[in-house]
Amino acid sequence: MGKYLPTEPYRGTRDFLPEEISVRQQVFHRLYEVIEVFGYQRYDGPILEPTDIYEAKSSREIVEQQLYTLTDRGGRRLALRPEMTPSVARMIAGNLGRLTFPVRWYSHPNCFRYERPQRGRLREHWQINVDLFGSPSSAVEIEFIELIHAMMAALGATPDMYVLRMSDRVLLNAIFTEILRIPADQTRPVAGLLDRWEKYPEDKLRADAAEIGLTDVQFTRLGEVVQAGEAIVAELSDEARAGSKLVEVMNTPAHDLIKVDPLIVRGFDYYTSTVFEVFDASPDNRRSLFGGGRYDNLVGLYSSQPVAGFGFGMGDVTLMDFLTTHGLLPEPANKVDAVVIPTAEALFEPARTAAAELRAAGVRTTTPLESAKLGKEIGRADKAGARVVVIIGEQDYAEGMATVRDLLTGDQERVPLDEVTNAVKKTL
Ligand code: HAM
């Protein structure tokens, strides 16, 4: 080890300096506003959860390879939450008596997964979760399709920049059993193969297919299913289509807002019907921006009362990549509005008084902590993003006056001390 400890954060996690926080806050606030306009209310929960809630029903990859686990002093097995869905299902089940359904909730937790850090994938990410509980209707799917497009629009994105790809586990199972003739209890590895379809070259897929017991004919048929895209739905039995929420969506105008795509599988055990992901149209960003779907059984882990769930997670890493790629990142906001600069040590007290008045009027104000040359202080104020400096000089102060300077235009005026706040507010 060197002489000093490293200054980098733990691999796959990030520090956020104030400028970055400013950009992120602006982005997130636009999203919160849209989500709230749709009637969703914010909730929160603990970062630590019993490991069981992920082991009971989540994603195999997460449970077997990505959980950060610990044992507390009482011997309880805990995990840093890798996602929010098991937590929110637990909270819904625990408050059934108090809730009026449908429940529309959102949250913005940080989640931890032991991943190999790469573009779009880190070990700690922030995930906006939006979920609706208590309705089996495909009106829920339609509401979410509209919400997602509204969120993207609020960020300045146009529909050509991204694509909302949707599938349905009910249809997927029918593809496996009716088209590929795979027994219903052996479909899981084939779903995994579909999930990897776009990530691997054909010879690797073919080898994987052979390994999980698919014949050449089945592998070829699977390729045809992928090629067919939406058209495959027409080849499935009436029974399968009647049980599909996605088919109901396809009969409404919302059909035009999605791409029906059998390649969307999602690696979680809890999804029961519709599944979807939103992808950047730019090939620079291959990881999804949003992922979600319908999970009609998860609350049942905690309670005998079945409660239908539907929702998504939207991650900050892929979102920031998307906004950067498309030139949609907002500028960092100014840190302060005004700086009150005394020109001598003896004027620190009146400068503090003037600063206090400005703050009371809601103007973000600082005043120097040590005396320095006026020019230097003005330079600092400018760097801090201040629009205005208030200069308290000896001569001015003796006459009950101060100078208010607009750093943008260079204009300045002498005003009585008790007029400083008004003069500053006029300039801002
Ligand atoms: P997920 O697909 O695992 O779904 O994650 C949702 C989104 O979170 C992804 O599309 C991606 O933007 C982001 N994300 C996930 N893992 C990482 C990572 N390691 N690094 C950076 N970003 C990541 C879920 O977690 C479901 N629980 C979502 C859900 C909510 N389903 C229903 N309600």
Fold and architecture overview:
- Helix 13 links the parallel strand 13 (338-342) and strand 14 (365-366).
- The relative contact order is 0.11.
- Helices cover 37% and strands 19% of the residues.
- It is α+β, with helices and mostly antiparallel strands.
- It has 2 domains: 18-325, BirA Bifunctional Protein, domain 2 (2-Layer Sandwich), CATH 3.30.930; 338-427, 3-Layer(aba) Sandwich (Rossmann fold), CATH 3.40.50.
- It has helices spanning 18-37, 52-56, 60-66, 85-94, 139-154, 169-179, 188-196, 202-211, 216-228, 238-242, 245-250, 316-325, 348-360, 374-383, 394-398, 420-427; strands spanning 41-42, 48-50, 68-71, 77-80, 103-107, 110-112, 124-133, 162-168, 259-260, 274-280, 290-295, 309-315, 338-342, 365-366, 388-392, 401-406, 412-416.
- The strands form 3 sheets. Strands 1, 5, 6, 7, 8, 9, 10, 11 and 12 form a 9-stranded mixed beta sheet that branches. Strands 14-13-15-16-17 form a 5-stranded mixed beta sheet, sandwiched between helices. It has a 3-stranded antiparallel beta sheet with strand order 2-4-3.
- The chain contains 16 helices and 17 strands.
